Amino acid sequence: GAGVSQTPSNKVTEKGKYVELRCDPISGHTALYWYRQSLGQGPEFLIYFQGTGAADDSGLPNDRFFAVRPEGSVSTLKIQRTERGDSAVYLCASSLRLRAGETGELFFGEGSRLTVL
Amino acid sequence: QQQVKQSPQSLIVQKGGISIINCAYENTAFDYFPWYQQFPGKGPALLIAIRPDVSEKKEGRFTISFNKSAKQFSLHIMDSQPGDSATYFCAASIMAGGSYIPTFGRGTSLIVHP
Q1: Number of domains composing chain B
Q2: Does B99 touch chain A (CB under 8 A)?
Q3: Closest partner residue to A110 among B41, B89, B93, by Cβ?
Q4: Do residues A17 and A7 make contact, with C-beta atoms less than 8 angstroms apart?
Q5: Is the CB of A55 less than 8 angstroms away from the CB of B96?
Q6: How many domains does chain A have?
């Protein structure tokens, strides 16, 4: 498909385990974002990549959270020593690097629902 | 600290009515204000957006009104339809590294009764 793809769609894990969530952005999109959405809340910013580098990681809640994008395309969000409070839907989005007159539209995937028991 | 405040949390409207959702922001560095629509089990999708040099933008039944001095903006959905039932998020965005980073409000769950 042409949209943002996220895997797995659902992940159930036990407290203390390690989790990886994958995002495959729209081809040609240089910007990639991770957001976290808790039930009944708006998406909460975690990290933003422009190419391979993390341009802004100010939203990562603590050092248990880490994300990489080694080749400037696919990204992986890694969560160590998971806690029950990490349970949420993790959304990935991608966008173009802006040129004059372009909109700042983010294209979101359907998310990975993480449940920590 | 909630940088973008959105109200109401939920809204019920009859078919054909007007739905109004309001948002307010604090940071004057925000310079792009999109609205996203989200259906259950899906990611948010851009509905309409406005830049701060414009006071109103209309696309079909959807209109954004923007008040820069009050740091407020709102979404109006005219002739609301049952298919509009979804969660709506306002956002305020800052340019960083060549792309916008949106900060989202908490969302408004809209139900349009037939």
Answers
A1: 1
A2: yes
A3: B41
A4: no
A5: yes
A6: 1
